[in-house]
Structures are given as structure tokens and as C-alpha cells.
Design a protein that fits this description.
By secondary structure, the protein is mainly α. The protein is built from 3 helices and 3 strands. Helix 1 packs across helix 2.
Length: about 70
């Protein structure tokens, strides 16, 4: 399992690296399904609940941009 440099993530996909938040935002804006898949593939210290919270945060940010 590949150890990621951001937020003590461990990637389950050895061929891809976990994206940092600033790298994930443009991906989420253009390809939300890909962003969700990449975030879901990472396990953060807080577990999947943290991931779900982060996705909600990103969705809210995206709604702000659309308004």
C-alpha cells in the first residue's frame, strides 16, 4: 500500500496517488465522479466518516461557485 504525503492517507490504488486538497478541487469541479472515487479510495486517520464530511464540504463549495 502506498503511503501518501497528505493527511496521512494510504492509497488502495498503488498506480495512483492521493490528491492534495488544492489538486482535488479542480478535478471535483470538472469530474466529480472521478474526485469522489479518488477520495473514497483513500483512508484518512478519521476513517470514512471524515471522507464523507470532506465530500459534503466540496459539494457545498461547488454550490457556492454556481450561485
Amino acid at each position: 500500500m502506498k503511503i501518501c504525503l497528505y493527511a496521512r492517507q494510504q492509497c488502495k490504488w498503488p498506480g495512483e496517488s492521493c490528491l492534495r486538497e488544492e489538486e482535488l478541487r479542480p478535478v471535483f469541479a470538472s469530474e466529480p465522479e472521478r474526485a469522489i472515487r479518488k477520495v473514497w479510495a483513500c483512508q484518512w486517520a478519521g476513517g470514512r466518516l471524515t471522507i464523507a464530511g470532506y465530500l459534503i464540504y466540496l459539494a457545498e463549495e461547488r454550490l457556492k461557485v454556481r450561485r
